[in-house]
UniProtKB/TrEMBL annotation:
Location(s), subcellular: Cell membrane
Family affiliation: Belongs to the nicotinamide ribonucleoside (NR) uptake permease (TC 4.B.1) family.
Coiled coil: none
TM stretches of this protein: 13-35, 47-74, 80-101, 122-141, 147-166, 173-191, 197-216
Protein's UniProt name: Nicotinamide riboside transporter PnuC
Keyword annotations: Cell membrane, Membrane, Transmembrane, Transmembrane helix, Transport
Main location (coarse class): membrane
Keyword Cell membrane found: yes
Lipid bilayer topology: Multi-pass membrane protein
GO cellular component: plasma membrane
Record Pfam families: NMN_transporter
Protein task: Required for nicotinamide riboside transport across the inner membrane.
Length: 223
């Protein structure tokens, strides 16, 4: 009970207002387009993860696990095999995140301590990510995945960003914003073919905006 109380501590009015607006927006789009409740539940868990992760709250990984389990099904349905494999990898990473963040909290145990990469390390991470993305893109093309190279770049960017987020580096939001920009394009194209994917397009847009906002927030707080 004490842990939960600390996870919801020091969250401002505008945080709750923005979160509620996003959740109601997701519900409204689901009802309007008569989309499956499963897609709505997955979408809301993703929104909760993004908001609480940006605030440095360990509870975000609980929402992340729920999101991963549902998102695997959606990616399989949409033939986004790159994202599917990424999401499977996210499950153990979410568990790792819980233990890593728990060891690196502020004195009041209400949020994590944020840090930043050196320029050299940032360039090394980006270079490695681009190289692996190209190889992965050819693999996805071979197994007939939708948007193979875009999917590969967004997948590798998300893996790298999530790893850096677990390690509490502010630069994770630069990389994940790039990935979410690609995902907005992918989900928009899929939505134009089938309205079922509106919650994913809505989420990708929310994640894109949150990534920009939280980059500057983490940059300000980085040690």
């Amino acid at each position: 009970m004490c842990f939960l109380k600390l996870q919801f501590a020091n969250l401002h009015f505008y945080f709750w207002l923005s979160l509620i607006i996003c959740i109601f927006g997701s519900i409204a789009t689901t009802l309007y387009f008569e989309i499956q409740i499963l897609h709505l539940a997955i979408g809301i868990s993703g929104i909760l993860y993004a908001f609480f992760a940006g605030q440095g709250k360990i509870i975000c990984f609980s929402f992340g696990l729920i999101y991963c389990l549902g998102y695997i099904y959606i990616c399989y349905e949409a033939k986004l095999y790159g994202d599917l494999m990424l999401t499977i990898l996210y499950i153990p990473l979410n568990i790792l995140g819980i233990f890593t963040w728990k060891k690196n909290q502020n004195l009041s145990k209400t949020k994590i301590l944020i840090r930043k990469l050196t320029k050299h390390n940032f360039i090394m991470y980006i270079s490695a990510g681009l190289f692996v993305s190209l190889i992965y893109g050819f693999f996805l093309k071979k197994i007939h995945s939708e948007f193979p190279f875009l999917n590969a770049f967004s997948t590798m960017a998300q893996i790298l960003a999530f790893y850096l987020q677990i390690q509490r580096y502010q630069e994770n939001y630069l990389i994940v914003t790039f990935a979410n920009g690609i995902l907005c394009y992918i989900w928009l194209n899929l939505f134009l073919q089938q309205t079922t994917y509106l919650p994913q397009l809505f989420n990708a847009t929310i994640f894109l905006l949150l990534g920009i906002f939280y980059y500057f927030k983490w940059k300000k707080e980085a040690q």
